[in-house]
Amino acid sequence: MIIVMKHGSSKKEIDHVIKMVEGQGLKATLLHGTERNVIACIGDKRHISQDFWNAMPGVEKAMPILSPYKMASREVKPTNTQVQLSPGFSMGGLKVGVIAGPCAVENKTQLFSIAKRVKEAGAVALRGGAFKPRTNPYTFQGLMEEGLEYLAEARERTGLPVVTEVLSPEHVEMIGKYADVLQIGTRNMGNFVLLKAVGEQPKPVILKRGMSATIEEWLLAAEYILSRGNTNVILCERGIRTFEDHTRFTLSLSAVPQLKQLTHLPVIVDPSHGTGKRYLVNPMSKGAIAVGADGLLIEVHIDPERSMVDGPQTITVEEFQRLMAELKPIAEAVGRQM
Amino acid sequence: MIIVMKHGSSKKEIDHVIKMVEGQGLKATLLHGTERNVIACIGDKRHISQDFWNAMPGVEKAMPILSPYKMASREVKPTNTQVQLSPGFSMGGLKVGVIAGPCAVENKTQLFSIAKRVKEAGAVALRGGAFKPRTNPYTFQGLMEEGLEYLAEARERTGLPVVTEVLSPEHVEMIGKYADVLQIGTRNMGNFVLLKAVGEQPKPVILKRGMSATIEEWLLAAEYILSRGNTNVILCERGIRTFEDHTRFTLSLSAVPQLKQLTHLPVIVDPSHGTGKRYLVNPMSKGAIAVGADGLLIEVHIDPERSMVDGPQTITVEEFQRLMAELKPIAEAVGRQM
Amino acid sequence: MIIVMKHGSSKKEIDHVIKMVEGQGLKATLLHGTERNVIACIGDKRHISQDFWNAMPGVEKAMPILSPYKMASREVKPTNTQVQLSPGFSMGGLKVGVIAGPCAVENKTQLFSIAKRVKEAGAVALRGGAFKPRTNPYTFQGLMEEGLEYLAEARERTGLPVVTEVLSPEHVEMIGKYADVLQIGTRNMGNFVLLKAVGEQPKPVILKRGMSATIEEWLLAAEYILSRGNTNVILCERGIRTFEDHTRFTLSLSAVPQLKQLTHLPVIVDPSHGTGKRYLVNPMSKGAIAVGADGLLIEVHIDPERSMVDGPQTITVEEFQRLMAELKPIAEAVGRQM
Amino acid sequence: MIIVMKHGSSKKEIDHVIKMVEGQGLKATLLHGTERNVIACIGDKRHISQDFWNAMPGVEKAMPILSPYKMASREVKPTNTQVQLSPGFSMGGLKVGVIAGPCAVENKTQLFSIAKRVKEAGAVALRGGAFKPRTNPYTFQGLMEEGLEYLAEARERTGLPVVTEVLSPEHVEMIGKYADVLQIGTRNMGNFVLLKAVGEQPKPVILKRGMSATIEEWLLAAEYILSRGNTNVILCERGIRTFEDHTRFTLSLSAVPQLKQLTHLPVIVDPSHGTGKRYLVNPMSKGAIAVGADGLLIEVHIDPERSMVDGPQTITVEEFQRLMAELKPIAEAVGRQM
Questions:
Q1: For the structural domain made of C2-63, what CATH number should be given?
Q2: What ipTM does this complex have?
Q3: Which residues of C touch B (CB under 8 A)?
């Protein structure tokens, strides 16, 4: 860490900061600049907040050198983590994996026919929401446990592992009985109680990016899970909130290669929520694979028009089939398989 | 609602949309434009998502006329809501109220001396965090129930009602035993399970704005609480995430007069988290009162440098005293009292 | 256009608005809603600002149905526009084109050797800045006319058409004497005097997106050029300003397929400025082609470390060669050629 | 400057960076950290771009200690700059000054009656656009020189100095003949050729913030003007582009006290463009004065409904009169006069 002192800070203030630095077990080196004094602090103390130093008299700013996450960092673990979704597929390996299904589980017929079709098209897992986080309190909130039962039955019929969202710590155990993979949605990336809860159980977790989270905040959210013992974390870029108004969110594909530098965790992309528009799902899926994503999370429905949730961004099973065929040469062009 | 059909949409598509509109109990009027056809839909059906229409073939976009929140809307309830914090003070009336205290409860001595001092300076309630949502999993997470006990004891000593944050539905009941007002933090504004839980208990709720929430999303979050039966909701602007990097967040003071048009709920401002900088707390508090805020939520500490959390944005009790004196003429200039 | 009247607007206000609408040659239809009255206005009058209506007493908001740009719109011209850069290459056709070169022209030797190498690797045009828009007034501002001379000489040596930025209307004529394509940078997308000036000369124009421009504003900037008579406009996505701090800007690749719906103009992507990081240029170039871009604009240097401008985002000629080889299968996977 | 080397950077890379640092006349100190090596560079070389260092092999990032602007910095000039607008008023002193007038000059009658009324209400200068930067090429672009003549005549009639926008370097001289203060609009804050042109003439300049400019970029734009010899620069906050959609822009009032720390230049606020809504002009004007602004720039019209430009954000002369009366006690509450 580097502590920059204010222009004109007193010797007493400088001495005080150095004493505090050394009190934390760090080595302090004072550098006299032409306009500012700077204190270089050596040692690894990620648990001390930068704010601690910023609050001291005479300090202009503390600038960290090390990232505050550790277990998520590629420096600590250089090799790629592979997260097993089923006996036949791990996310983060050579094979690109596409998770597909309806936004919300609506009924058995709908779910089973979608599951069958996405399986045939090559999906590696089935997604479906039983507990839905809806912005509007007056809209459909999901089938809850009944939906989970349908998902489990769909798994038996198709062999596809099941991914579903968990909204609250009190549901973690129950959902874990039905699902193979737990998903944390964008609105809960900063729900630290929930992160701890999924960190204390063994099922893989898909951690969506908070819609206004920096990459560092996102990796710190992953760190919450990892540090509780669950190392099966998959990161999912799903669009960030910006001034752009043509798409619901701005899908930040550069986050994918950026994360590949910073972390060993698998990274997937959700082009459905990330754009909010059906006709953008196909090109943005291709873009995601081309920039190096390990997989995709796509909303697919038999009849998007009748979809109770997120219809405008949901593609049909026919469109999904075509997309899967079109993705193959892209994956191969970047040295991956499908 | 207005449904704009695509350039070149077919008669069949138009008829289909009209049929669907009428199937929802709305009256449809078809307008032939020079380049587009438009279907005006009359009736109040806020529970049907705009997305439902956007997904239909031939539809370019559905444009809602009515806001999707109802109970929070000033149209439905034109008079200001006043939320009672203590027998002596309600937020939303003529008197501007300042809630003050440490970011986190750290120990008894700290809390009691801060409580005594902010009370003397004119605060209407004491804030203090017992459960802390921390971005970094390796930093102090709060004293939890022990902290709540200290807060309750501080109330007995000072008479100040106590405001504290609730992070998870499973804590609502327990925290409700100690606190007078429950706070929902920015990271939980979209935690709908938690919103429902605080909506089903009677204590007033301070609902902070999600750091990337639009005003409509924020009012819909309030609607979650209101629609469960709890009408004691106070909105708190606390800064939004933008590209600005000099402050931690961009405090959007225009949200205050904007909300005053749209809703009857009281609106307060948190200049501490909203800026992240101690020296901005004073001017931004003045600005908040000048634009019409009903109150403030301010972090105050005996010794910010020793504060375990958020030191850089915390002011001293002396600075708080001076601020309170300086706010009085501003409040009076806008027709309020302190 | 749809004009939504305020809840409780008077008959007099409504009549007044209708009169004004009809005064503009539009047909007005009044619709009585359950909570609001709405006036549907039929006719094509894009030149009347939405603001004109918003300002009237009793009006809540005016909602346009038609986009305000016309000549740039795909509705007006459904077929793709191809912009000829040289006798051998047009942007917007089957072939994907990559424009490459140094950020700034620094000297003859540098420029000629880069030009030779990018030509060999398959670039379709040479880029190089002679007039540099620099945020910091104390940094290198470009070689100016001398730089243009070198560019012209590089064209003679390699046969590559030359792309260079124009900063001011008074330079348009002079730069047009040397360059084949004029570039409008992100900081000048809203410099309407400059847009008019390049619209009144015949050379193709690469119009970069303003870093905080919506897609509509960007197309309106293109409309400035088109409406002055120059229809050779290429749009270039180069990153938008968001809260993300890991990259200099957020490259919004979804803008590409979005634009392909809205406009007939060719769309290219600048992954160098759009990310600000050398190691992101390769993956984001692939992503750009995969989402459907017609071309790329890439900063290439013999020795990026010695580059006087934008070194961190500039790739070497060797990296460029490899990138060009790697892009080929991606282009083919999406039905294009290179 | 602090240069952080990558984890695992080689001795050769470190030596190379140190050699380059010393080659620039800076003193280099190597610090061996537990996970990273860091090179502290001492000396004032603001003209070397941070990018220069970032591009070197083995470098993770260069972190500047000094801000890149100098003449605009309060460290270099601690006392407030006052910019004289007329013999009777300087912006930046004890007196708060309000500049008012129509968005665009439309005709003589309109201008003269507005000028008379704002003068009576206490405005210190008259604003009015003769050259209008319009997003839509099909809308009114201003009266141009004819408008300037009217402005000059309005000055003679009222004694108010005249503020008008300059869009292009080639107009600077001509506009300078008529106007007392030149305004640079938000879309031209990064038009460096124009900044240089207004820096080379003596009239005061109001420099609006670019809608996506950081405070550092804004101060660097001011530095362009100052470094050319014109020290009469007034900064004007006018709203930034964010995801908020209820206001046209987000007026960032915290920029005002922030700037007061960083620079000696006067700071004013434009609540009209900053919100885009008439009913927010009054509260946001009060907020601006409360946070410490030196003045305001407000759009006032006799009949906003007939205003050819920006009607929805323009207040009437009656509203302006009332606002001026209401601002007085706010100004006094923060130790200023009106």
A1: 3.30.70.1140
A2: 0.92
A3: 2, 4, 7, 29, 31-36, 38, 40, 42-44, 63, 65-66, 75, 241-243, 245
